[in-house]
Amino acid sequence: MNSFSKKEAKKLLDGNAFCREMNTAISKVGSAAAFARLHGLKPQTVRDCWDLKSINPDVVAALGFIQVIRYPVSGQTGVFATAKDVQEKLNNFIRQHKTQRIAAGIFGIHETHLSNIQNGLRGFSPVLTILGFGPPAMFYIKRAADHGAS
Question: DSSP class of residue 65?
């Protein structure tokens, strides 16, 4: 598993740090409406993000970030896994238990539901605890600078 270590997790901004960045950026231009105009966004979209009603990906991008979901690894404070890590562990769990039907029974869900989780049609929630992960957490990563791309 390629879980993020505590050092790597320091690159992830939590919601509070993201809000500080957003407040700073909006304060620099004077208002949410000015920030919206500067970035070609609807003012209400920026205000909704600023009020934490909804986090819009366009506002996140305008601030220079990418929104990511990570899964805390149970019993390892500050260590987070990607969706790929969870998927990998799920697939190994199913292989270890020989059939999807047996694995689904352990999770307490129907095998069709488990199949849908494996195929990305449903979220990981029903399998996280047994696989050793906590509920998903939203983080933000600074977007890499665009180096000469056209």
Answer: E
What does DSSP say about strands 65-72 and 80-81: parallel, antiparallel, or unpaired? Answer: antiparallel
Q: What is the DSSP letter of 108?
A: T
78, 79, 75, 43: which is closest to 59 by C-alpha? 43
34 near 50, Cβ under 8 Å?
no
The predicted model scores a pTM of 0.77
Taking the CA atoms of 141, 125, 134 and 131 in sequence, report the sign of the dihedral they define.
negative
Residues 6+ apart with CB under 8 A from 18: 60, 63, 65, 140
Name the stretches of the chain with pLDDT < 70.
1-10, 145-150
